[in-house]
Amino acid sequence: MSDAGLPPNWEVRHSNSKNLPYYFNTATKESRWEPPSGTDSEKLKVYMAQHHSAPTFGADGNGVNEGKIRAAHLLVKHKESRRPKSWKEANITRSRDEAMSVILSHEARIRSGETSLGDLATSESDCSSARKRGDLGFFGRGEMQKEFEDAAFALKPGEISGVVETASGLHLIER
């Protein structure tokens, strides 16, 4: 196994029930969704992008169930976010302004054609959906935070939103 940047006794395992990677301590048998403290975030990002990224997001954004859409997103959290931690950082300390700067940089790279939202989400999103290229699957009205839902439903398939702010943080959404 290549270096995932985890502290001693920690490894990345795969949950079959959720089809997502998680963190497991072989000594204490503790398991968790967020990386343990002491994790090297940069090494973990590279490791997860290489070993735990999902197939390309290719849905047209139209739901099979009436009234549902499919979307992917890239989330940048900040210290005022509802849960200021993620799969790559046990404690997020960046300010809202710093998070805005980060997400605007991501948006510029996506809009320039340098990269795609899905490719960038794999290593940069603070949501566990990063493992699935940001894919949130199908959802209907009332299933997401209102600001997120309003922005997602306003997009046409293939479109990417501007920055959308919710209690979770700052998002770019692709339908």
Automatic annotation (TrEMBL):
Assigned GO CC terms: cytosol; nucleus
Pfam families: Rotamase, WW
Keyword Isomerase attached: yes
Keywords tagged on the record: Isomerase, Kinase, Rotamase, Transferase
Catalytic activity: [protein]-peptidylproline (omega=180) = [protein]-peptidylproline (omega=0)
Cleaved signal peptide residues: none
The keyword Transferase is annotated on this UniProt entry: yes
GO MF, one example: peptidyl-prolyl cis-trans isomerase activity
InterPro entries in the record: PPIase_dom_sf, PPIase_Pin1, PPIase_PpiC, WW_dom, WW_dom_sf
GO biological process, one term: positive regulation of transcription initiation by RNA polymerase II
Name of the top EC class for this enzyme: isomerase
Superkingdom, taxonomy of origin: Eukaryota
Listed EC numbers: 5.2.1.8
Designated name of the protein: Peptidyl-prolyl cis-trans isomerase
Origin species: Trichoglossum hirsutum
Gene coding for it: SSP1
